[in-house]
Known about the structure:
Elements: H1 3-8, E1 13-17, H2 23-34, H3 41-51, H4 55-58, E2 63-68, E3 71-78, E4 87-92, H5 101-115, E5 120-124, H6 127-134, E6 140-146, E7 154-161, H7 162-175, H8 178-186, H9 196-205, H10 214-225, H11 252-264, H12 269-272, H13 276-282, H14 307-319, H15 327-342, H16 356-360, H17 377-391, H18 397-410, E8 427-431, E9 437-442, H19 447-452, H20 460-475
Antiparallel strand pairs: 1-2, 2-3, 3-4, 5-7, 6-7, 8-9
Helix pairs in contact: 2-3, 8-10, 11-14, 14-15, 14-17, 17-20
Amino acid sequence: MSNNDYKFNLKNLSIELAEPSDASFLSALALKSKAHWGYSEEFLSKCIDALTISPKRISGGRFKLIKSNEKIIGFFGFSDEPEEFEMTHLFVDPEFIGKGIGIILWNNALEFVKALGKESFIIISDPFAEKSFYSKMGAIRIGERNSEVDSSRQLPILLFDFKFSESLKMSIEYLNSPEAIKSIEADPYWPKWNSTWWHMLLLFEMGEAKQIPLNVVESYVAALSKTPLKIFPINPEDMPIGVDPYRESPCHCQLGNVYQVLSACGVDVDSVLPWLRPWFLRYQMADGGLSCDNEAYLVKDEVPSSMVGTIAVFEAILLYTNRDFTTEEKQFLKKGAEFLIGRQLMYGSNTKHNAAERKSAELWMKLCFPRFYLYDVLRGLTALLKYSEKTGDFVPVSSIREVVKHLNQRFPNDKIIIERKSYEGVGTILQTQSGEWILRQPATLFPLLTTVSQIGEESPFLTKQWLEAKSILERNPELKVLL
């Protein structure tokens, strides 16, 4: 029988509920399938207990198996716990891996879940299975936990949510289409929101940068390399004649996010875009912040920096420097942290020039997802805590007390609810069919963006970030008192 017979001829296959008497065979099959990833015999011997399935567990009716000519070649299983519904097992006999059996099992599992009235489930995945299978099926990483077999190993916690899966698939299909490359070639940033850059940035914020196709990443780097203005124009003479000040003059928040996204895609940004990191260091203001307002740098009697202009750049240097920090970078980060501390993560600028930020700051306690270039207090708290843990520098309890108190009280069960939309009311620059770019046009959305940003819904991505922040607080003796 050929491989194609197994893959496409469903007459040879049957799927049925597992029986308690199958427990021993399924346990052995799980261990055999685990060995497919090349683990050592010593490690596999440690996995035996964890992969052993009891007859009692199977008797709950949440295990199904697939047979080929009456031979069991794979199975899946779910937990009995009502609060955290988990796919605990999905294993295929190594002889049949790559023949479509896993996909058949997966699709049947989804129907099984729907029949139970469930909207989502989690998977504590093998790292190899995450990359080769689950992420391709639409599961997204929402956290990590220590392996029960080896505490030095981190296992990805994945989420499959029916409301995310179809729209995620649509964004990935778009990024794999010729239209995605055309969008980058027309402009690597505009229009908002249904263009390539915003799909890329959203996937990054979801922890799914690995889903961005390599040719899209390469096209984006090529387009950004052609940026005619590789400085931030402060004085009128800095802007060359013929350069579009809206489309061809990037700002700090844009480039800070670009640096992070490309780094997460495996790009050595300092090599391919060597002007970015010096840009970040050059435009830090006296108080440690930056501003995307060119005129702010000409103000003499005050320092009108902004949170939005600062946060993405601070994150880029802090989180995506894969070597020791230089003296200049250490100073940049120290001043940036002092800026966040001075603002207590929640206050807008006290300057006349940037008085408008005080109005914006009224929204910072309301969390949003995705952020794109915007700021909220959880984003600032996470960055500041990671700075403290990475550098060992002290963060005063008083500088974060009100924000931590607010988050604890607002989300007592640690499940973060979306409270505003970052993109609401934002217009765009739009290209006409003739090639002309027009200002102040209505922005268009895309399904994944609207799906993951519903006000009143829990965001697994914000929840993950809050739990990371709490974990850092827990490890810090001085800051632990805030929990």
